[in-house]
Amino acid sequence: MTPLLEVEGVSKSFRGLRALHQVSLALNTGEIVAVIGPNGAGKTTFFNLLCGVCRADTGQIRLRGQRIDGLRPDQVCARGVGRTFQIVRPFSGLSVLDNVVVGALRGERSLALARQRALAILEALGLADKRDQAALTLTLPERKRLELARALATRPELLLLDEVMAGLRPTECDQLVRVLTDLQRSAGFAVLLIEHVLRAVRALAQRVVVLHHGELIADGTAEQVMRQPAVVASYLGPSASPATPETPP
Amino acid sequence: MSPKRAGALALAALGLLVFPELGGAYAVSLATLILYLATAGQAWNLMMGFAGQLSLGHSLYVGIGAYSAGALFFHFGIGPWLGVWVAVACSMAVALLIGGLAFRFGVSGVYFALLTIAFAEFTRIAFDHIDWLGGPGGMFLEVAQRDRWDLAHFRGPPSMYYYAALALALGTLWLCARLSRSRAGYYWRAIREDEPAAQALGIDTFRWKLLAVLVSSALSAISGVFLAFYQNNLFPEQVFHVSRSIEILLGPVIGGVGTLLGPIVGSLVLTLLSDGVSELLAALGWELPGTKQVLYGLALLGVVVFLPNGIWPALHAAWQRHSGARSA
Predict the structure, then answer these.
(1) pLDDT value at residue A113
(2) How many CB pairs under 8 A join A and B?
(3) Among residues A167, A201, A186, A58, which one has the least CA distance to residue A123?
(4) CA–CA dist B110, B116 (Å, integer)
(5) Which CATH number is associated with domain A5-90+139-240?
(6) B150 and which of A83, B11, B26, B155 could share a cystine (Cβ 3.0–4.6 Å)?
(7) Dist CA B92 CA B87 (whole Å)
(8) How far apart are alpha carbons B206 and B99 in whole angstroms?
């Protein structure tokens, strides 16, 4: 069976700066994979390549065997890849419901159906009672959930989450993890998340890959990966990877 | 709809219908101007208010529409009913060129606005040199008898133009209301609020922005055809001038950008204000040049400072507070 997402030997440089070097990754249907790595490791570049914001210099990205590298963001979305933004970008002037309706209109013939589905998604994310408020009145955790709701409304097969947990309190983070796992179990989409909050990574991801200086240095379960000396070194520096493995903060 | 609201609407409709019978010639011409500006303003508002694409050169589309239909009538005696299609086609072709170029090369925001001014300006200069269209000396449509309705050639008494302008204003209002509640409306607002986010939701922003420009240019062209046959004279210096573009966008800006009734409320307030100031100055016997412009400017300043979202949203909110307080 072909994996849902295949990334093969992808490299990207910005002028002289090598942001990504020969990164390969495969993701199966329904799988949840986290990409971690210290600041500047190339996580965001990797994310931007996947959703069509920038183009890879070399390599291929395939979704269900079909190449999606070189497509525009809207075309990537149309193929079944939904995304959130690290810095939330709600349509501030629109109501919470209308924000999600815009996403739900993709693949829905009528506005009435789109509204119906948008409402169901808001219900699942606990935003239904705020549906008529303007999006700019929401708090940060609510905006993060709205971001998620909008992406989910496009019916993705693959959901790309760019630090959805950042800035959330632990309880809010746990709550969002619960919501995400429930939704993922019922809808069956795959998730690729970039995340700094290890609490969420441990709870969500079946697999963790680590980027460092634009290269993939580890791939495995959260526990396996965090024991690897190279990973510890990438976060804390080489002197911090002694024989006794410590989990990075 | 509540019976009270239906009654109010029926009364308003009746008032608009019998207005030419009751109002004098001056009032009818003023009302026609208001309705024309409301139509053109609605067209501009569709592009800026809905889709967030600022045009400072909308006189271009109005002018192209006016000149196309005007020239067909002037040279070949072809009336506006056929001419309007040609006008719309010409205007949309220009819009396709400007929008296509701008959006393909990622020109947006202020730079897009500058581009719209540039196109309007060089069209103005170009038209000064087209003798077939009268050049700088203008093109004059034959003014026929004013007492009889000649619908085929769109010639008749002022009341005919009033009703035509009324139909246009209501027609564009209806169309914009429909579009606002359609997929296009949702996508346009999403693009207006945040284009990259809209694109991430699968919206082909190039295509939908272009659609906004095309629809807006078509509606503007129709209002231009009306203008040509109402004014009967067209000068490039007037038709394509930047001040005309400003005149078109002031209505929706003052009335409320992005709202459906804003362009109508705005053009009503502005026209009455402008004429009211003139009347007031005449009554006071002040003849200092520029006084009118200064007072008009101060009034605009007042609206922008105190009602930054426009008059209509403020009125609407006040009305809801009022009815909310009553029902509570």
Answers:
(1) 94
(2) 74
(3) A186
(4) 10
(5) 3.40.50.300
(6) B155
(7) 8
(8) 9
Residue B218's closest CA among B52, B39, B51, B74?
A: B39
H or E segment to which residue B192 belongs:
helix B183-193
Domain ranges for chain A, please list them. Answer: 5-90+139-240
**B150 near A CB under 8 A:** no
Residue in B with minimal Cα distance to A86: B197
The one-character DSSP state at B155 is B
| Residues of B with Cβ-Cβ distance to A50 under 8 angstroms | none
Residue B30 — φ and ψ, nearest 5°? -65, -45
Q: Enumerate the β-bridge partners of residue A194.
A: A35, A162
- Three-state DSSP class for residue B91: helix
Q: How many CB atoms lie within 10 A of CB A113?
A: 13
A74, A83, A89: residue with CB nearest B205: A74
Q: Is B67 on the interface with A (CB under 8 A)?
A: no
Q: Do A91 and B197 touch (CB under 8 A)?
A: yes
Which residues of A fall within a CB distance of 8 Å from B201? 74, 77, 102-103, 106, 150-151, 153-154
Average the pLDDT over B263-276 and give the result.
91
Q: What is the largest CA-CA distance in chain B?
A: 67
- Based on the number of CB atoms within 10 Å of its own CB, is B113 exposed (0-12), middle (13-18) or buried (19 or more)? middle
Q: Is A132 on the interface with B (CB under 8 A)?
A: no
Distance of CA B205 to the CA centre of its chain: 25
- Min Cα distance A71 → chain B (Å) is 12
Closest Cα to residue A36, out of A243, A228, A179? A228
At residue A21, the pLDDT reads: 92
Pairing state of beta strands B139-140 and A81-83?
unpaired
Confidence bin at B327 (pLDDT 50/70/90) = low
Question: How would you write the pLDDT of chain A (249 residues) with one tens digit per residue?
Answer: 788 999 999 999 998 888 999 999 999 998 999 999 888 888 989 999 999 999 999 999 999 999 999 999 999 999 999 999 988 999 999 999 999 999 999 888 899 999 999 999 999 888 999 999 999 999 988 999 999 999 999 999 999 999 888 888 888 888 889 989 998 988 889 999 998 888 888 888 999 999 998 888 888 888 888 888 888 887 777 766 555 444 554
Q: Does A115 touch chain B (CB under 8 A)?
A: no
B109-136 pLDDT, tens digit each: 899 999 999 999 999 999 999 999 988 9
Average pLDDT value for chain B: 91
- Nearest-CA residue of chain B relative to A106? B202
For A136, name the nearest residue in chain B, comparing CA atoms only.
Answer: B193
Contact status of B278 with chain A (Cβ, < 8 Å): no
